[in-house]
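step=encode ok
step=design start
structure_in=
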């Protein structure tokens, strides 16, 4: 197979095993090149530069040198701490037997208990939020001191810094409906680290990114920056009042949709104010240093190659989970997997499996490990990742694994029978069992392709798309309700009958939104990236020679 633009090396690819501890972690110093003008579509800084502010303690000072570090997760689920320029990144591990899984998100709230060491929170797809202190001479992630369940009801959890002025950093969390809840820190890391949730805002579903900035104004209170899908940037200044922790938002820029992620990186230039980093699709980063009035200075060049990070701790986008690849199956039943580079392109294919006897589909993760699962039907028996799940599956002619459709945090399966009826099988979150089927639709026999893997609408819920025989592309938005998991269909494209193979690949370009690929009769591979609003961008050719496959999943 040939893929266009394979110009980047496979930095941080598969490793034999994760390091159990780090000998030492050094802070990140982002390379500061020549001062560049902000992009033509982004606002320049407004207002005079303020005097040096005191600011807040960096949330991510894992290495203990007083400067904020950058922690990131690779596609394979390995955690790394970014060191100084010229030094290789360090593997970072938690003293936790479950840390082999791919986390849905990692949140760095900072020092919650006042001992000078930061805490780190990990979030699984099933909604378990776990607190890890950084301990010991190497300041590695210690054994968990607390876990809480039910956090799958939120599509984004953010660490903005101290919102109440009590010296302890807090959390906010947003629901798919756009309601924001405040979790005030108790100053403990055992027992109950956070007070019960209090609703403090609504309408935040208008934003596709929410970035915790720590203190960007020098008043000791945490602040937040948000972005709309159109690229407008808003500043939410912290008030210190837990009943209303943010002032009314003020627009501070536009054109920030050029970045696939915005990241709160705390204080980069030593003035005590929390700064912002933008990552472009090609992995280049730019730094926006804060002024004390809520605005940002013109950007400067940061580092490059950051498409290696599938998830940056502190990034503002909704976390994606469960699938970042596509598998082609030949007529002989051989499978070849193309993994996402996280920049809109694929790595070269890798041989994985052979399915000579049955038919296969690839589902977004059905377990809590964050990895896609193969669904194989052979002689009427369903196998998930090689494990038998029961007989009678020969009544279905298609299986779709778009992710969590029921809102419980567990990946689910849709099955279509010969009559065109659609059934939901809820997963148990472990990939080991499925609940009894629920009929959730009919008339699906009219579609050439039905696919799904992730969120196309920006609400954090899994969605499904289908191509009719006339080439119309329909979106079925997920509801999070098991009895009616899909809303009524909406047309989002036409002319898709030119594709004889079509697949949902999860996030291909690093923005956390679900993307699609199609193969035409010539074998050319085209990418459709999601806008996060239920629409898709214009197609881009990213490969050719894919007519060697009978199917793409």
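sequence_out=
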């Amino acid at each position: 197979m040939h893929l266009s633009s394979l110009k980047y090396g496979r930095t941080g690819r598969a490793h034999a095993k994760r390091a159990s501890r780090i000998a030492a972690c050094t802070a990140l110093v982002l390379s500061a090149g020549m001062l560049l003008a902000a992009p033509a579509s982004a606002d320049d800084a407004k207002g005079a530069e303020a005097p040096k502010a005191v600011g807040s303690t960096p949330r991510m000072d894992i290495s203990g040198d007083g400067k904020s570090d950058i922690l990131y997760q690779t596609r394979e689920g390995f955690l790394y701490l970014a060191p100084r320029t010229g030094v290789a990144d360090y593997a970072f591990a938690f003293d936790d037997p479950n840390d082999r899984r791919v986390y849905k998100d990692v949140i760095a709230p900072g020092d919650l208990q006042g001992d000078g060491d930061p805490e780190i929170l990990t979030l699984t797809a099933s909604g378990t939020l776990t607190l890890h202190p950084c301990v010991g001479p190497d300041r590695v992630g210690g054994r968990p001191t607390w876990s809480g369940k039910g956090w799958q009801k939120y599509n984004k959890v953010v660490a903005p810094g101290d919102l109440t002025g009590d010296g302890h950093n807090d959390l906010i969390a947003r629901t798919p409906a756009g309601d924001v809840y405040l979790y005030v820190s108790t100053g403990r890391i055992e027992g109950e680290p956070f007070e019960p949730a209090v609703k403090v805002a609504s309408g935040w579903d208008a934003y596709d990114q929410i970035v915790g900035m720590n203190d960007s104004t020098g008043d000791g209170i945490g602040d937040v920056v948000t972005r709309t899908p159109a690229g407008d940037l808003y500043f939410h200044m912290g008030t210190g009042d837990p009943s209303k922790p943010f002032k009314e938002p003020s627009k501070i820029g536009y054109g920030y949709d050029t970045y696939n992620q915005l990241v709160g990186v705390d204080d980069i230039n030593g003035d005590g104010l929390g700064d912002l980093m933008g990552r472009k699709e090609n992995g280049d980063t730019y730094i926006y240093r804060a002024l004390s009035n809520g605005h940002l200075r013109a950007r400067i060049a940061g580092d490059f190659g950051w498409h290696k990070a599938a998830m940056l701790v502190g990034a503002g986008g909704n976390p994606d989970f469960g699938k970042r690849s596509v598998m082609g199956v030949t007529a002989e039943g051989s499978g070849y997997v193309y993994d996402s580079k996280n920049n809109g392109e694929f790595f070269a294919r890798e041989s994985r499996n052979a399915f000579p006897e049955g038919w296969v589909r690839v589902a977004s993760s059905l377990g809590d490990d964050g990895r896609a699962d193969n669904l194989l039907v052979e002689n009427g028996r369903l196998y998930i990742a090689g494990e038998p799940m029961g007989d009678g599956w020969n009544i279905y002619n298609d299986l779709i694994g778009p992710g969590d459709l029921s809102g419980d945090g567990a990946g689910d399966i849709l099955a279509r029978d010969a009559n065109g009826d659609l059934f939901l099988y809820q997963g148990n979150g472990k990939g080991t069992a499925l609940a009894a089927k629920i009929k959730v639709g009919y008339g699906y026999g009219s579609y050439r392709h039905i696919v799904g893997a992730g969120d196309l609408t920006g609400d954090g819920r899994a969605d499904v798309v289908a191509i009719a025989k006339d080439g119309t592309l329909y979106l079925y938005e997920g509801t999070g309700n098991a009895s009616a998991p899909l809303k009524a269909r909406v047309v989002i494209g036409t002319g898709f009958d030119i594709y004889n193979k079509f697949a949902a690949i999860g996030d291909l370009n690093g923005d956390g939104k679900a993307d699609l690929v199609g193969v035409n009769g010539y074998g050319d591979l085209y990418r459709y990236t999601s806008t996060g609003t239920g629409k898709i961008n214009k197609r881009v050719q990213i490969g050719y020679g894919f007519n060697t496959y009978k199917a793409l999943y």
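step=design ok
step=annotate ok -> The longest strand covers residues 259-266.
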